Amino acid sequence: MRLSDFIMLNEAEKKIAVLKEGILIAKRSEISYMVFLFQLDRYYVEAYCNPENKAIEEYVAFGNTTWLTPYLESIHIDHLLE
């Protein structure tokens, strides 16, 4: 599925796509959310989860890797360098 296809999905379809096709690669905490980062094909999706009710409240999809900056310190690649 292309990024443009994902963007056109409704919220329920986005949830299914992320759960079936996505690979969880990182997570981070924000004040009101736990944000999960998934990779799908050649793009990424952030799922904003409300920690109180465990519901995903927003999906943010992007292809630009500069948006990965908040995750870089939490992604460990030491084992790849050995």
Automatic annotation (TrEMBL):
This is Uncharacterized protein. It comes from Filimonas lacunae.
